[in-house]
Structures are given as C-alpha cells and as structure tokens.
Amino acid sequence: MGKVLALKGLSKRFGSVQANEAIDLDLNKGEVLALLGENGSGKTTLMNMLFGHYLPDTGSIDVADRQGSLQPLTLGHPQISLTKGIGMVHQHFTLAENLNALDNIVLGTEPLISFKRNTGSALKKLEKIMHETGLFAPLDVSVGKLSVGERQRIEILKALYRDVRILVLDEPTAVLTPQEADDLFDNINTMAKSGLSVIFISHKLREVLSFSQRIVVLRQGKKVGELVTNKTNESEIAHLMVGGGVKSAERETCTPGKAVLQLNQVSITGRSKRDSLFDQSLEARAHEILGIAGVSGNGQAALASLIAGLEVPENGSILIDSSEIEKPTPKKMIGAGVGRIPEDRHHEGIIGTMNLADNLIIEKLDDQEIQNFGILKRSKIKTNAAHLCKSYDVRGPGVDAEARLFSGGNIQKMILARVFEQNPKLILANQPTRGLDMGASAEVRRRLLDARKNGAAILLISEDLDEVLALSDRILVMHDGNLIPAETRDRAQIGLLMAGTAA
Amino acid sequence: MIDILNILLSESFWAASLRIASPLIFGVLGALLCERAGVLNLGIEGIFVAGAMAGWMAVWLGAGLWGGVFFAMLAGAALGLIHGILTVPLGLSQHVSGLGVTLFATSLSYFVYRTSLPAVSSPPRIEPFRALDIPILSDLPFVGPVLFQQTALTWLALLLVAVIWYVMNRTPLGSALRAVGDNPDSVDAQGLSVYALRIGAVVAGSSLMALGGAFLTMSAFDAFFFGMVNGRGWICIALVIFASWQPGKALLGAMLFGAFDALQVRLQTEVGALVPGQIFLMAPYLLSILALVIAARRADYPRALLTPWFKGQR
User: Fold this and answer.
1) Interface pTM (ipTM) of the complex?
2) What is the pTM of this model?
C-alpha cells in the first residue's frame, strides 16, 4: 500500500488562536482514517488547508499523482487540490439552494463557456455512483427544497462525481439516520477497497471504532495520538481527546406528572408533504422526556415550528397546562413557559451579529429586570451574561463579542443558558446535540435530564436514534407527517418505523 | 372608456410602448445579471448617462453607429469594473459604492460633454439608428408597424432577453452565476473563482446598462441632453424585483412600464383638459410601484445579494 498523502508540519494561526501546530499526517492508498477531536481542536482547519481553503503558515503537503508518486501540492488553491484528486465534503453545506442537485454537482466540472450542459452523461455517471454507494438523492429538485439529510448526500455525491482519490468527510453522518450512516460507511469501505483513500472527521466513537483502520486524535491544535483502530478502545480514545475522562449523564427514574403539552388533532400544510403534519395528537408530561425519532424531513420541522409558535395550526388545538393557546405566536408560547432549542442554532438560535450578552436576553426584552421604560440596563445585562457564561461553561471571545464568533458547541450552551434560566415548563429540544462533540453533547444531555428531574416536560426531536433511546421515557416515530408510538425500544424495529415500512 | 380601448388597440400605442421599453430592457437585464451574482449595482443611473454620452460622442466623432454601441458598452464596462473591484474583493458597501459610481459617471459625462463642446448652445445632432424596414413583414397589419419598424437596438434588446435567459438557465456559466449569488461557498468549493464570476457579471451587466443609455441618444433621440436619463436607471432597479430576477419577466416589466408611459401621453391629449398633466406624468411610476409592491411580496431574492464574500473566511 503506497502513501497517497503526507502532511508535514502544518501550522495555522488565526489571530491569537493557534488552530494547528506542526501537524504531520500520512494517508495510505485504500485506507480509511478517522480524524478525531473535540470542537475547536483544529480538525476542520487542518482539512481546509489540505483542500486549499486556508494557506498554512508553515509546513507542506505532498500528494500522490495518478502514477502514485508523491508530488508537492501547491497550497491555498481549491481548484488545484481538486485536480490533484482531493475532494472534501464540508460540515457546512456548500450548495447553492436555487440550483438543483445535478447543477450543483456538475458546477465547475465542465468549461464555463459552453453552449449547453452535458446533462445526459452527467446523469448517467451519477446514477452509476448512486447505485454503487446507495446514496440516493433527487437530482432535479432545487436544493433549497430538500432536507438536510438529502443535502448531505448530495455533498458526498458532489465529491465522488469528481473521481477523487482522496476523500475528506467533515462529520458526514451528523445528519444521517443510524442505518444510513452504517450504509454509508459500508459503501466507503467498498470504495476504499477499490483504492479510494478516506479521511473522515467524527465525534461518534462508535462509527470511528467500527469503520476506520487508523485514528488520529487532535487536541487544542496538536496531534496527541495516532492509533490503530483494532488495537485500541473507546476509553483510550476518549481520554486522548479530552485529556481526561468524560462522565456520561446518569438517568434517574422519575414518575411522569400531569400533561404539560397537549396537541389535539393538529394539522399544518407545509410547502410539501415533508413539512406537514396531518391530524396529529400528542401529550408530553412533566418529569418526562418524549423522544421524537425519525429521519429529518418527515414533519419534524412542522411540529417544531408549531410548538415554537412560529406556525398556527389549521385545525386542532394546542394546550399548555390544560389551557388552550389560541393563534400561537412565539411570544405567547414563551409566555406560556416554552423553552426552545432550535434545530439550526446558527440561524434560528442566535443573532450572529449581536453580542453574546444581547443574545442571552433576546427572549425577555420586556422584562423589568433588564430594562426600564425601554432603556436597557447595560451593566446588569453584562454581569448577568458573564454569570451565565460561567455557570453554563460558555467559552469564547467574551460576552461583548459577536455571537457568530463562538463555536457551535458554545453557541448551543448559550442557548441552553437562555432557555433554562427561564425555568420552562416545556422544553422543545430540536436536534440538540447535532454536530456537537462529546463534551458538549454530554453537557446538553445532562441539562435535559436535570430539567426532567425538576419537573419540565421535554420534547426531544432527534435523528440520533442512540440519543433518543438513551434519554427518552416514551418514543414516537415520525414518518411522512404522522406520529407513530414506538411500542418497542428495539433499534431495528424503530428503524423500520422510521423508514415507514413497518405494518 | 372607448377612448382607452381605442388607444390600446392602436398600432402606434404598442409601437411606442416597445420603443419606451427598449432602454429599460437593457437596464433591467444588466441589473439582473449583477444581482443574480449577488451584487446590487446602484451605479445604473450614472452608467445610463455615461452610455448615452459615450455612444453619442463616438458617433459624433465619426465612429459609426455600431462603433458608438461599442464605446458605450466599453464605458459601461469600465464603470462596472470600478464598482466590481470596490464591492467584490474589497467588500465595500454595495449601496455606497453604487451611488458613488452614479454620481461620478453622471458628473464625468457632463464634464466631458461640456469641455469638448464649450461653445455649443443647442446639442449637436447625429444620424441615429433608423427603423429596420423589413420587406413584407413590415407591411403586415398591426404586427408590422409594432414589431418591424423598430430600430436595430430594440431588436438587440429583445434578442438579449432570449440570450440571457438561455445563458442563465441552460449553460454552465449560468449555473455558476446563479450559484455565486445564492451561496458563494458552493462555487468556491467547486474550485471556481467567486471574485472572477462576480466581477465578470458586474462588468457585463454594466455594459448592458450603458447600452440602455446609448439607446436614448442613438435611437430614441439624436442628441445628448443633460438630465435625459431621468430616473430610468432607478426604474430598472425596481423592475428587477418585479421580474423576480428572470429575463422573461424583465421583458414583461419593461413593457408594462412602457405601456403605462405611452398610455399617459395619449390620455393627456384626450382628457388633459379635465385633469392636471402632472397626474399623467406620475401615472407610470405610480402604477410601477403598485405592480412592484404586488410582485415583491413573493420576491425570492438571491440569497447572497449584498453579502460580500472573502476568500478563506467561512
């Protein structure tokens, strides 16, 4: 097995942050390498240097040409990295939403100045790839209308379409169902056997251990370990990643209390079937976590916006603490005691260009505590924010910094602080740990379990079946706008419900 | 009512509508190209003036009519390049830069005109584009006078609608253009240059805008006056939204405005005694705003419009 890639002493500094420090990394032909590390450990930065998005401060990269001999790579040019056979699937989607999948995939692979596109042969090639990998996605629909899971698949197809020899996947399974993730890795392994070299970034130890051959661990921008997968175990890796042990949340037994949220036969007709709800009812009780499992794009968005007060149901009623909320608005729902952890934390959870302190008070602007006759009490807001940052362990450039400058995990902690400080009766947690690392995920789960102990009702919408199974008292499976109670906790059975194939 | 019906059925009304719409078609298409790539170009009003001036001046100096078209587009491209460089790699405010270009281009055009013709009291005339007289077709009833007695520039405008639609929707370049205005990262990740695409679109769009200006001095009239553009650029900015950034609807929008304008002139003569003339002058703008309000409610803006993109920042 020949070496196809060698990173040598790569370093990159952003302002005062040393994102990568003298990192060496080798990759062999047909190898599946896992790159592990907590958020902010520099994995993505490293891969962005490989792909040419960032120019390293020091260091060099050698990449094998078609004949297999290592050649130095010209750094800082995505086009050059692409032509050298390096493909990257980004964690944040790089898709144009107004184009269909096919156009997104073909973009940049054919000469720009041409009288027509070669859609026929592109389609043929893509269909072949889709059959080989099992990664199916509608090709002729605007990407903006597709679910997050479908977009992820398109991202991967986009790289495969370019006949890459080295494929970098930045958290590829964050949005896939467990079955889809397993399928994906099976297919990656098949492709690896035929010569593709893969680096994947992940937080999920289960998939890292099952599907990689070698593991490289980064912590705070440095390479802290290189392990052969079948000679290591979960605790050794976790120890390397966080530089200490991680304690998983304890789940105590609770007796469910009275119903906090009741939905009676509510319907929402969305733009498509995938964001609609059809005559659905559910009940979430105090001291209870109600898990909603399902592949994204099966009506979860409609359910979440209904409870967040963003949509008014066409028929049916919403009751909180047995009193009906008529014509719900976000304000009414917050007033009724709903705490909201939104799915898209960067866009719906925060206002990126406002500072952290202001983001923390944004749901209670008419509270006397923070304003007098419309004049904000600046110093109070700031001390309060500093206090919350401390108790929720929000780390970053400080309370005066724009919220967008914080990492995903810290933004989520900030949202938790905002939600939990209001002592909500009902918590809508929509994909609360998506894209978070082990430390941050454990923290979010611990907070949710705490809230459950303290008497809140929690509606947990998650694509991560393991998470739903670990946290929920009861489970509903969402498919095609319908909620189906899961009588079992068997992964395979629930998986069938998620796919809509169970009787 | 009968009067209006008579007007609407007359050949001259539709011929006039198309003539009035022609510069707007160029302008809307130009603005559409810029905005589809994610750059608002408020330099349009000034680029109209510069195009009108440059085209006319070139013809007056003996470059010939198509030479005039060339120089008008060149002037527009140069101004577009300024706007493109300021807003794309440098990422300055598109509003400020655009208004700056308008002020600069307008003043520069007047300055050049005045300094080259210091002693002229009435504007010198050129021989403008003539109506293309196509045998047989021009003699068709109704369609003949409306379509086949327009100048070559009007034909060019109509042709460009089709060309730009085709390029945008049927070619790789068009995909890239639409993508860069929606999510520049998508273009960057595929190894294409965001800067080149955006600057290219602004330069191309600006040269079309200048062509709109040139239509005024080389087809609609035969001389250059101060203030002759008279807000047509701004109308185009509004029409782009009306058109939902689509070439076909851009043609519709421009025709609608042209029709309103042609109608008001005729109504003035019909019922001018009863209502002050200014009401009629106002009407096309008012109706355009109305149409815009209705259309803009569903407007689907290019998502990256007004958002600068910088390499290596994501």
Assistant:
1) 0.86
2) 0.75
